[in-house]
Amino acid sequence: MPNPASDPASHPPDGALGIRDERYFWGAEYVRRMHDELGHDVCRKLAIFELPEGFVLSVVVPVFNESGTVSSVVDRLRATGLPMQIILIDDGSKDGTFQAMSSLAGAKDVTLIQHTKNLGKGAAIRSGFAKATGDIVVIQDADREYDPSDFRYLLQPLIAGEADVAYGTRYGHYDRQLSPWWHQTVNGFITMLASIAIGIRLSDVETCYKMVPREHLSRILPALRENRFGIEIELTARLARQGLRFTERPIRYQHRWYDEGKKIGWLDGVRALWCIAKYGLFRR
User: Fold this and answer.
1) What tens-digit pLDDT sequence spans the chain (284 residues)?
2) What CA–CA distance (Å, rounded) separates 43 from 218?
């Protein structure tokens, strides 16, 4: 697997050559013109490529008490210009999140799901996966820590057939505001153990951005069990057991603090260790 920190194709320079556009043109005419003007290598570096005809990306968005951000996240998703199915799962919010989501009811690109009580991020993700109908599925948090404009860099190796699963790593991009050192240390330790136990080399197993073709996801969906943040380890382990090729691409990341609504806690770290043993070592 290429090192995302050293792979030149995975370092997108913002505004390079003046062609960066938040609508992200995906049509054949635009792509051909860019290849003629810039050449193959530059277009690869900027992830300018044509989508297959009829392509749809399913974006699974677990939401818990994010009434102030959920609408803006949908706006950012739409701004990518990608053909999307946006699946919003309200996981028992108490702050009016579902009411904010309901304003999107009826939109052709939005599917709404409501859990009447809080079941956990993993449960919300599994509910979203079950409703996904697109060619490729990706997870998007509702707190604006992650930038959907990076989707194209994850899509590129999947569309090109260079990988079967693409993860976004928060530790290889120049444009990032990382979490505190202790959080990075714990994540690094968990990632190291997961890589050893599962048998694949990753730099960020806890990343939100996990992009998987639906055909691969559908094979493991009935087996997924984790209801909270342990889903990150379980999903990775079950995908790896399929013999799928993993790749990572650097992504933008803006850390959110606990007083701003960040929800993962130390107990989730303990659960992650248990999940590494359960799904990695013991292959449950």
Assistant:
1) 444 444 434 444 444 444 444 444 678 888 999 999 999 999 999 999 999 999 999 999 999 999 999 999 999 999 999 999 999 999 999 999 999 999 999 999 999 999 999 999 999 999 999 999 999 999 999 998 999 999 999 999 999 999 999 999 998 765 555 667 767 888 899 999 999 999 999 999 999 999 999 999 999 999 999 999 999 999 999 999 999 999 999 999 988 655 544 556 667 788 899 999 999 987 77
2) 32
The structure's pTM equals 0.87
Please measure the distance between the N-terminal and C-terminal CA atoms of the chain and give it in whole angstroms: 26
As given in the structure block, the two tokens for residue 243 are 């013999």
Which of 86, 84, 85, 113 has its CA nearest to residue 97?
113
Q: How far is the CA of 226 from the CAs of 160, 272, 276, in angstroms? A: 31, 10, 12
User: Which residues 6+ apart lie within 8 Å of 254 measured at CB?
Assistant: 144, 145, 147, 176, 177
Superfamily name and number for 53-281: Spore Coat Polysaccharide Biosynthesis Protein SpsA; Chain A (3.90.550.10)
Residue ranges per structural domain of the chain: 8-50, 53-281
